[in-house]
Specification:
alpha+beta; 6-stranded antiparallel β-sheet; two-stranded antiparallel sheet; 18 helices; binds adenosine monophosphate; binds magnesium ion
Length: 490
């Protein structure tokens, strides 16, 4: 099998990665091939879904043109620095320029030990693989920049976690796997040549329009600041909690990467965190912009020697780029919130209006997705107010707010129908609810039943439409179904 790879990362200096082969598995079987993504990449979905495809997607056979690599990186995890992390269980096969002209990495996650595995087994359990498949594909359909899932296969071997679990491999597709932590890896080694090479490479790959300024490192910091501001605003718009925003899980491409303990809000709560290991709430919902900025500071710090001729000027240049973050984030988040409320103008009072609604939602335990979707109906016709208000413990809290919202809507020209239509493209009907993800994983892992997984994946292909038959997936959890904690599960 050939993938049509064109491997630019493999042509970077040898200290950027380790050449390593995937470790063979006993009995690979395809769980799912993402046909649409395969076609975008110019790959044959039927070939991938065949037994020969299972051999390739499990790492048992390499495509002829693959150059298997484990990438070196470091990272701040929960604020503490690890100078050496790297791909401990992920192996890059190569890069494909897709039918859309975009270059993407194709990587096997869970493909066996590498020189970066430390104590780990290099493997992935089926549950986290299915979770990443569901959530990353849902994010893509929601319009949030993200890595994608090309395929999931089971290996026929078990992996030891808290218990023995079926092993699996996810084929991850990403704009690249360069992280803030990749820069930190070389900064920790005081390797300026590598930093310069990587900055120029990353800028050319992800932000070619910004190349040619004479200072690639500085241009890169500026571009990544903007991309992360946009990304986190989109997360907040759909109620996404990443859960493990370490610098090694922060892609310089601006894609969401690493779906470990991630989760979606049911009821709106800015302090919400799900991850069992995030004890202090460092990565809680509303803290994500703060952390993104902190991670960007680590990027700028790593590149400091390249930002200007002397240190003082470099610090000034870095600070100037980092200080753009609050305004860029504010602008992006303002755009997200206005779209959710059906507003197109840019009255600064809109943000107060949005904040007031969110506060009332938090105080009343209101489901984030259901409320904004109900608001679309209320925008079409005021009789829809009752359904929105019913989501509040105190319905009066909604009606009071809605009066102010309607006054604001009246100042804009759009017809009610047009506005409601636009709002339905900004407020999803369906998100991957945590309890539904758990249910799909349970069925697959415990009963070898992939039906719920398949249904969830298909439903989430059109998250902005009210597709009949998927009503049960839109409902928030009952008390018994509620997922209180998520686990890295690596
Ligand atoms: P993560 O928490 O998935 O972001 O991973 C953090 C680091 O641990 C990365 O260097 C991973 O490659 C490594 N890692 C996670 N799980 C495993 C595993 N099962 N085997 C080897 N390395 C792992
Ligand atoms: Mg990671």
């Amino acid at each position: 099998m050939r993938f049509g790879f064109d491997n630019t990362y493999a042509r970077l200096p040898a200290r950027f990665y380790a050449r390593v082969l995937p470790t063979k598995v006993p009995d690979p079987r395809v769980v799912r091939v993402n046909r649409g993504l395969a076609e975008l990449l110019g790959l044959d979905p039927d070939a991938l879904a065949s037994p020969e495809g299972a051999q390739v997607l499990s790492g048992n056979a390499l495509p002829d043109d693959a150059e298997a690599l484990a990438l070196a990186y470091a990272g701040h995890q929960f604020g503490g620095f690890s100078p050496q992390l790297g791909d401990g269980r992920a192996i890059l096969l190569g890069e494909i320029v897709g039918r859309d002209g975009r270059r993407r990495d194709v990587q096997l996650k869970g493909a066996g030990r590498t020189p970066f595995s430390r104590g780990g087994d290099g493997r992935a359990a089926l549950g986290p693989v299915l979770r990443e498949y569901v959530v990353s594909e849902a994010m893509a359909a929601l319009g949030v920049p993200t890595t994608r899932a090309l395929a999931a296969v089971t290996t026929g071997a078990f992996v030891a976690r808290d218990e023995m679990l079926p092993g699996a491999v996810l084929t991850r597709v990403a704009a690249s796997h360069i992280r803030v932590g990749t820069f930190e890896f070389f900064a920790a080694r005081d390797d300026r040549d590598a930093l310069a090479t990587l900055a120029t490479y990353a800028l050319a790959r992800h932000y070619p329009d910004a190349a040619g300024s004479g200072n690639d490192a500085l241009a890169l910091v500026g571009c990544v600041v903007a991309a992360q501001a946009e990304l986190v605003a989109r997360w907040l718009g759909v109620g996404f909690v990443h859960g493990v925003m370490n610098t090694d899980n922060t892609a310089v491409s601006g894609e969401t990467i690493d779906y470990g303990p991630c989760a979606f809000l049911d009821e709106y709560d800015p302090k919400k965190k799900f991850s069992s290991i995030d004890r202090g709430g460092r990565y809680a919902f509303a803290n994500q912009p703060v952390i993104a900025r902190w991670n960007l500071a680590r990027l700028a710090e790593s590149l400091l020697p390249l930002l200007a001729d002397d240190e003082e000027a470099a610090v000034v240049a870095a600070t100037e780029r980092l200080d753009r973050f609050p305004a860029l984030f504010g602008e992006a988040y303002g755009r997200v919130l206005r779209a959710k409320l059906g507003l197109t103008g840019d009255d600064p009072a809109d943000l107060t209006l949005a904040a007031d609604l969110l506060e009332r939602m938090a105080a009343n335990g209101v489901d984030y997705t259901l409320l904004f979707r109900a608001l679309c109906d209320a925008a079409a016709d005021a009789t829809g107010d009752a359904a929105a208000a019913a989501l509040f413990a105190d319905p009066g809290a909604f009606h009071e707010w809605a009066a102010a919202w309607r006054r604001r809507l009246a100042s804009e020209g759009a017809t009610a129908e047009a506005r409601a239509g636009a709002m339905r493209r900004a407020n999803p009907a369906l998100i991957p609810r945590n309890h539904r993800i758990e249910e799909a994983i349970e069925a697959a892992v415990r009963r070898d039943d992939y039906g719920p997984f398949e249904t969830l994946v298909r439903a989430l292909e059109r998250p902005y439409d009210d597709v009949p038959g998927f009503e049960h997936l839109r409902e928030p959890p009952t008390a018994g179904e509620r997922v209180r904690e998520t686990f890295c599960g690596t």
